[in-house]
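Q: Hi! First time doing this. I have a protein sequence and I read that you can turn it into a structure. Is that right? Here it is:
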Amino acid sequence: MSTTQVSAPVALAVSLDDIAATLRLDADALDAIGPTLALTVRAITQEAEHKTQRSFINRGMRATLDAFPEAIRIERGPVFAVTALNFRDAAGMMQQLDPQDFEVDNATVPGWLVPAVSKAWPETMVRINAVTVDYTAGYGVSADDVPECARQYILLRLADLWDPANRKFGETAASVFADSLLDQLRVYA
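A: Yes, that's right. Below is the predicted 3D structure, encoded as structure tokens:
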């Protein structure tokens, strides 16, 4: 199985107001370096998402499998919504499975897809990439939806990177503390 991002997050995982307050920037300074800050925040967010194996802000994802397993593990959750479950049937034709024919477990991370009660997965053509699951992963569409510990991690890492006293690379007290903020969100295989 492979999982890929098919659309970018719709917002930053932390608000511009929080960024400005963390770095003690006024509106003019924020406007002047805003694009660079946004790139840095996206990079830190990607780092945090990699460490936790989660998606913070909603984005489109696609899981691709060669056949239907007993249950489909949905990576990089939480699963916000499953938008389509497509498969190549035994005759080689692309089909979309009716949402009533499967259940989504979006209460756990990673999420799971299983056949609905008294249903079974359909037979697929024997070939690579016969099944695709399109879904939205994330906590929501704004920074307010992101868990507080993840937002705090991003802001602490941002402050650590932008503080002139920390220009040399190395572990700081702030970076050690920040990393532990992600512990409660980590997904272990």
